Amino acid sequence: MNRIIKIIFLDILKNKIVLAYTLILALLSWSSFGLEDNSAKGLLTILNVILFTVPLVSILFATIYLYNSSEFIELLLSQPIKRKKIWLSLFLGLSLSMVAAFFIGTGIPLLINAPDSVGIMMIVVGCLISVIFVALAFLGSILTRDKAKGIGIAIMIWLYFALLFDGMVLFLLFQLSDYPIEKAMVAVTALSPMDLARIQILLQLDVSAMMGYTGAIFKDFFGTSLGLIMSFMLLCLWVVIPFYISLKKFKNKDL
Amino acid sequence: MKKNLFLFFLFLLFSSFLHAKVIEVGANKPMKSIKKAIALAKIDDTVLVYNGVYKEGNIVIDKKIIFIGKDYPVLDGQKKYEVLSVKADGVIVKSFKVINSGYGTLDDPCGIKVYNRKNVIIQDNILDNNFFGIYIQNGTKCIVKNNKIKAYGKQEQLIGNGIHCWKSDSIQILANTISGHRDGIYFEFVTNSMVRRNISIHNSRYGLHFMFSNDDAYISNVFKNNGAGVAVMYTHRVKMYNNYFLENWGDSAYGLLLKEITDSNIIGNHFNENTSGIHMEGITRTRIEKNVFKANGWGMNIQASCMDNVIKNNNFVGNTFDISTNGSLVLNTFNSNYWDKYEGYDLNKDGVGDVPYRPLSLFAVLTERNPSTMLLFRSFMITLLDKSEKILPSITPDNFIDKTPLMHSMSL
Question: Which residue ranges make up each domain of chain A?
Fold first, then answer.
């Protein structure tokens, strides 16, 4: 299995896109810290990178890579290797390269410019987001053989989590504003990995505002060590569940 | 002749010294009891108390004496009595350690209480674990200086205020340190008074709380980490200069809560890391200038009931929201502030941005209407909505505007 991961990892590195992605992330991060006089604004830029660029690139790149390596997968399947092993090594190779790109591009400037709880939280969350969207790409690409359709699904998934979900939450919040829905809303955030990630970073970044009335409810949940563990468990579930479903489908798929 | 005159004055001088005698109290002195010493003392005498623990119940000073401790003698109220009651003009109480006053909600037993008197000086005392610390009731021209007041109140109802002044005039509260009480400093109907260089931290309700106290000045105080910050209500002509309001966190915790204030000046203060820097309700004709708002949840919360206030030359740096409000009516002026969220440009390089700045973000309005939306803060969709709102204001009042935003922060 390690050998397959190594092959995939090296293959991705040879494919210059991940290198370019790393460079762009590094450029964004360094310039956002360099241009602004206070590091808080740089952190905000990076927050937007984590919530916007990282998921988009992760899901699109992984989807396209999966479609392009369908012949390679078929070749591997003809060997005496378990399907689970192949799928898992593909996933690990892709995740590893996306996480490495994120860590080198954004993690290092973060560690240098903001080596506190905010910076570390951002690195952890950014890595998790990368892996989650790779897993979602696996789920999306197993659903259809058509490459165009698969990429379409990937973009839809990204749009849903980046824009639509928050729009729906906002709509719900205003429709149900007469009811005590704060606690229910905390549960709703579990349905979007991006919201979970964003709130964890907010609790570090905007701590003063989060101590206000509603903020305090979120802080009471997410800010405690139990909440922290819970939200990281949930984020991990967002990796495990999509990947597990895709694995099930891959095992039974007629290729 | 001149020499004789000089000698005569010298004699007068010494005779006056001889007249005011010193009564020493202590374990090794003939006089063991403070109460007896005070009873023996005549006007202008000094009662000097040596180090030791004195459990004499309620000590009443009913004549003009100088009451001084040496090496902080302990006056213990044994959790039953008011420790020291001042019932004469011109008394000086200095260098005592006053501990364990009684508890009572009807008569408010205190560490040191001044009853309807003038020119009392309370200086250099340590107050520990009292119900109320220092209480000035209907006093005039009294000075409370350099006292260290500490209590360990867990519940608001079970603890009194550190320095409590009621219906007084021309009081000076200087350089005291107060912690663990309900309100650090409490003023009610106190006029023409000065509160300066005090440190009020970790009090369970407000660091400073005053109501109906006109023409007072609060200068260079530090209010840190109090239950609900500082509250200022129903008062005219307040001057607040160079104070620090720090780390007042929580729901309904404010750096400075202003309610029904008129004709006041709030200048040169620092508001750092509060949930809400200043919360204003019904404020009129007040100048808010040269303050620094840094890393607060909300820099200023200006309710629509405020009018004719001038908010000028302040630095707003790193706040989650710079301004929020609850209505669409804007009767206040914003001028020449520095906003770190300003994204305009300055073509003629005069340090003033060419594009007006709208400090009120869409999201601040949304959270004001529906606090739960805080959940979506910094979401990508909210950022998009905010940007389009900045260009074409529809929900935020369009006259909520700083026409001359500064390009660089002022050094304040």
Answer: 2-252
